[in-house]
Design brief:
Elements lengths: L13 E2 H7 L11 E2 L1 E2 L9 E5 L5 H6 L4 E4 L12 E4 L3 H12 L14 E2 L4 E2 L4 E2 L4 E2 L4 E2 L4 E2 L4 E2 L4 E2 L4 E2 L4 E2 L2 E3 L4 E2 L4 E2 L6 E3 L5 E3 L6 E3 L4 E2 L4 E2 L7 E3 L4 E2 L4 E2 L10 E2 L4 E2 L4 E2 L4 E2 L4 E2 L4 E2 L4 E2 L4 E2 L8 E3 L4 E2 H26 L1
Parallel strand pairs: 3-4, 4-5, 5-6, 7-10, 8-11, 9-12, 10-13, 11-14, 12-15, 13-16, 15-18, 16-19, 17-22, 18-23, 19-24, 22-25, 23-26, 24-27, 26-28, 27-29, 28-31, 29-32, 30-33, 31-34, 32-35, 34-36
Antiparallel strand pairs: 1-2, 20-21, 36-37
Length: about 350
C-alpha cells in the first residue's frame, strides 16, 4: 500500500540513478527509468521501490511485482525478471533513505503563528516555525530551522539546537539540547524527579531538583515519555539515543550513545548506561546501577544488579539469558517427570 497523500508529502517521480545514488548502491538497468514511490514486497507495483534483507523473505521477493528492490548481493539472484536489483549492504537502512526521498519530512516555513506566545527576550533562530498556542519562555534560545508544533511549551532558559522538532503538546524545561532532537507528541522533559525524604513526623519532604537535562545530537523521545531533570547532577541522554513511547527516565540517569529503550521501560534514578545499551518493552531498572556497553535486556526483565559490557539478560530478577532458558528447560523436564510419576502411582 502506498503512502496516503492526505498525510504524507510526495516528491516523486525519481530516476533509478537518483535512488541508487542515495544508497550508494550498484544496479544494472536504465538509469533514467523513473519510479513513483515505495511499498512492501507484496503490495509494490512496477512503479514502486521495495526491499528484501533476509533469506526468509525470498519467496515474497521472487513473487514481487516491484519495479526496484533493494537487496544484498546474496539475494540478487532471487529478484524476478523485469525488476531492477539495487545491491546494498543493508537494504532496510537503504529503504529508509529512499522512503525519505519520496516522502521528505516537513520543512519549517519560518512562520510564528499569531496565537503563539514568545517571550520578548527569547532568541528564535532563522527559519524556525512556531505553531498555534505554543509558549516560548523567557531567555529561551531556539536554534535555526526548528519546527515547534501546536500547544508546545518551551520553558524559560531552555536551549534547542539547530533543526529540533517538537511535536504537538510536548513540553520541555530545564534542558539543553543539541541539534536534531525530536520530542514526539506529549513528551515531557525537565520536570522534577521523584525525590523526597521521610521526615521524623512521618510527612514526605520533597527534595529540590536542581539539575538539568542534557540531550545529545539526534536523540528522539517518544510520545508521552518522561525524562526527569537531575537532582544535583544532570540527567543525560547520549547522542543518538532513542526512547520509544511511554518510557520513564528518572533523575540523574545517564546514557551513552545510541541507547534504545522500548515502550514502557522504566529507569530509576542515578542509573548509568554505557553506549548502545538496548532494553526491551516493560524492562525495569532499579536505581544506582551501572550497565555496560552494548548490554541487551530482554522485555519485561527486572534489572537489580550491575551488568557488564555485552551482557544479555532476561527475567526477573534479570539473569544471563542462556541460564534462564536452561533453568526453564530443567523445570519443564521436572514437571513432566512429576506428572509421569503421579500417573504411575494412580495406576
Amino acid at each position: 500500500m502506498s503512502a496516503d497523500a492526505r498525510f504524507f508529502g510526495h516528491a516523486g517521480p525519481l530516476s533509478l540513478t537518483t535512488i541508487a545514488a542515495a544508497v550508494s548502491g550498484a544496479f544494472d538497468g536504465d538509469p533514467e527509468r523513473c519510479f513513483s514511490g515505495v511499498a512492501s514486497l507484496e503490495a509494490a507495483t512496477s512503479q514502486e521501490v521495495s526491499f528484501c534483507e533476509a533469506p526468509r523473505y525470498a519467496a515474497a521477493l521472487r513473487a514481487t511485482r516491484a519495479g526496484v528492490v533493494l537487496v544484498t548481493h546474496a539475494l540478487a539472484g532471487q529478484v524476478p525478471p523485469g525488476c531492477v536489483a539495487i545491491i546494498c549492504a543493508s537494504p532496510s537502512a537503504a529503504f529508509g533513505k529512499v522512503a525519505l526521498l519520496f516522502h521528505p519530512r516537513p520543512v519549517p516555513q519560518g512562520r510564528i503563528h499569531p496565537t503563539a506566545v514568545v517571550a520578548p527576550d527569547a532568541v528564535i533562530g532563522e527559519g524556525t516555525e512556531i505553531g498555534p498556542m505554543s509558549v516560548i519562555g523567557a531567555g529561551a534560545r531556539i536554534g535555526e530551522g526548528c519546527l515547534i508544533g501546536p500547544l508546545v511549551t518551551v520553558g524559560p532558559g531552555v536551549v534547542l539546537g539547530k533543526g529540533c522538532i517538537l511535536h504537538s503538546h510536548a513540553s520541555i524545561s530545564h534542558a539543553i539540547c543539541a541539534e536534531g532532537v525530536v520530542l514526539h507528541p506529549g513528551a515531557r522533559v525537565g520536570q522534577e524527579g521523584f525525590g523526597f525524604t521521610l521526615a521524623p513526623d512521618g510527612r514526605f519532604e520533597t527534595a529540590p531538583q536542581l539539575g538539568l537535562v542534557e540531550i545529545g545530537r539526534g536523540v528522539e523521545i517518544g510520545a508521552n515519555s518522561c525524562v526527569d531533570r537531575g537532582a544535583l547532577v544532570n540527567t543525560v541522554l547520549g547522542e543518538g539515543t532513542r526512547l520509544d513511547n511511554l518510557v520513564q527516565v528518572g533523575h540523574n540517569v545517564r546514557t551513552g550513545r545510541g541507547c534504545i529503550m522500548v515502550a514502557q521501560v522504566g529507569v530509576s534514578g542515578s542509573t548509568v548506561m554505557g553506549d548502545y545499551v538496548s532494553a526491551g518493552g516493560q524492562a525495569g531498572f532499579s536505581g544506582h546501577l551501572s550497565i555496560g556497553d552494548r548490554a541487551r535486556i530482554g522485555a519485561q526483565s527486572g534489572v537489580i544488579t550491575d551488568l557488564p559490557a555485552r551482557a544479555e539478560v532476561f527475567g526477573t530478577p534479570a539473569a544471563p539469558i542462556r541460564e534462564v532458558f536452561r533453568s526453564l528447560q530443567v523445570l519443564k523436564r521436572l514437571t513432566a517427570e512429576s506428572r509421569h510419576v503421579r500417573k504411575r502411582e494412580a495406576e
